[in-house]
Amino acid sequence: MSGSLSSSVSPERVGLVGLGRIGRNLALNLKDGGVEVVGFDHAPEALAHAVRDGLIAVPSIEALLDALAPPRLVMLALPAGAATEGVLQALLPRLVAGDIIVDLGNAHFDDTAERVRRLRAREVGFLGVGVAGGESGARYGAALMAGGESSAWARVAPVLRKAAARLDGRPQVALLGPEGSGHLAKVAHNAAEYAEMAAIAEIYTFLERILDLGPEETARLFDRWARDDGASYLLEITANILRRDDPLTQRPLIEVVLDRVEHTGTGLWAVQAAQAAGVAVPQVTAALELRLISREQEGRRRRSRDWPRGTVERPDPNEAVPVLENALLLARIGGLVQALELAHEVARSRGWRLALARMLRIWRAGGIVRSPLLQRFEQAVPELSRPGGLLFEPWLARRIRELLPSLRRTVAFAARAGLPVPSLSACLFWLEARHQTSLPTRMTAAQRDYFGGHGVVRADRQGRYHLDGTRVQAG
Ligand code: 6PG
């Protein structure tokens, strides 16, 4: 393919299968750092594009392996599931002891754990590395979260450091834990990403529909918020999007974008894994479910016709804007707490020690959720294992109490106006519930015993009882 593949073997030559947008940009990033990347992709267009970008590309997996001297380092940047497994199956018979595979895709962390164990039996190293930061992160500094064995990590770390996002000039990449820890960290990152994106979108819609602000005015607000204490990359890009005009119609870009949003799995895995591990992540669930509802175009259009609208007076923007800013900040804090509780509990259920403060530092360097706010969370991590949990950490507890009235007002106003704000509502419900001593579940517990004989835990004595006062028999 490319003529630049010489027969001499560089100590920094690595293979890369998958030259899509993330793979190609990572390869260019590594190349800038002096790493020679030999790439392959099943899609001829992706191969051609890589060659046009000056990368070394070979026509097959065999050629890729031949171009590397054992023990080889082969990276995969492929869609999760069948695509990754298919390439792994093609590689496996040709791998030798000491070779290392690095999966840079958005794989499910349990699949990664299984691959680490499966390849260990063949003396082949396998690392699952979560890559965050989008295309520009891949090109100029990605948030890289590794999981797997330290022996494989020692060999891979110097290579990945070259592509990593930096903080205070130092590359931020680390082995966060064993087995699927790196990919779990990426799922947690995406949980926070879903929650922040949804909260921003809901606040934007409030500004647009209820305060009647146009794209330029909302852009100015997001710009300002993106410079405040709660600054974030996602706030910044929201302002940029609002300032853009559509090149086809010259109208504000946001006005021509349909509300339909897809997802590629990590949000769903986050919700499923959190719930299975006993953690509630209602903001992530709400964000995912709104995406699912957004796909139904025709039904929504038909039913919207005679749907009773809410009636509200347009509030004074000078009063409403600071309230919305606070509500958004609280929802972002809620999303981060949920993402961290998810990571902590899912890791614990797998027996993985996950370096959460390190993970947050990596997110802060180059994640889509990067924000100075994350520094607070890095300091708060030890609270996750204490009885009051993260929500009881003094700074967070104080901030939550300060911002809570604004979230209550925003959700109540949106409800009266008939504006769906599922992630803000979910954050509010979750906060209210997490700070109550008596929840509606008291009645649920009684009902379960009434019809199913499951027993209840009594508030006034030890042990499980039926509603008729008899003790629940063991077994
Ligand atoms: C990133 C993002 C990215 C994300 C995809 C898919 O850091 O670049 O987290 O990797 O996983 O954008 O997300 P969706 O589920 O929205 O498709």
Describe, in plain words, how this protein is organized in 3D:
The chain has three domains: 13-179, 3-Layer(aba) Sandwich (Rossmann fold); 187-434, N-(1-d-carboxylethyl)-l-norvaline Dehydrogenase, domain 2; 440-475, Up-down Bundle (Single alpha-helices involved in coiled-coils or other helix-helix interfaces), CATH 1.20.5. Residues 1-11 have low confidence and may be disordered. It has 475 residues and is an alpha/beta fold. β8 (166-167) and β9 (170-171) form a beta hairpin. It is built from 19 helices and twelve strands. The strands form three sheets. The protein has an eight-stranded mixed sheet, sandwiched between helices. A two-stranded antiparallel sheet has the order 8-9. A two-stranded antiparallel ribbon has the order 11-12. Helices cover 53% and strands 10% of the residues. The structure holds 6-phosphogluconic acid. 6-phosphogluconic acid (6PG) is lined by residues 106, 132-134, 190, 193, 263-264, 266-267, 368.
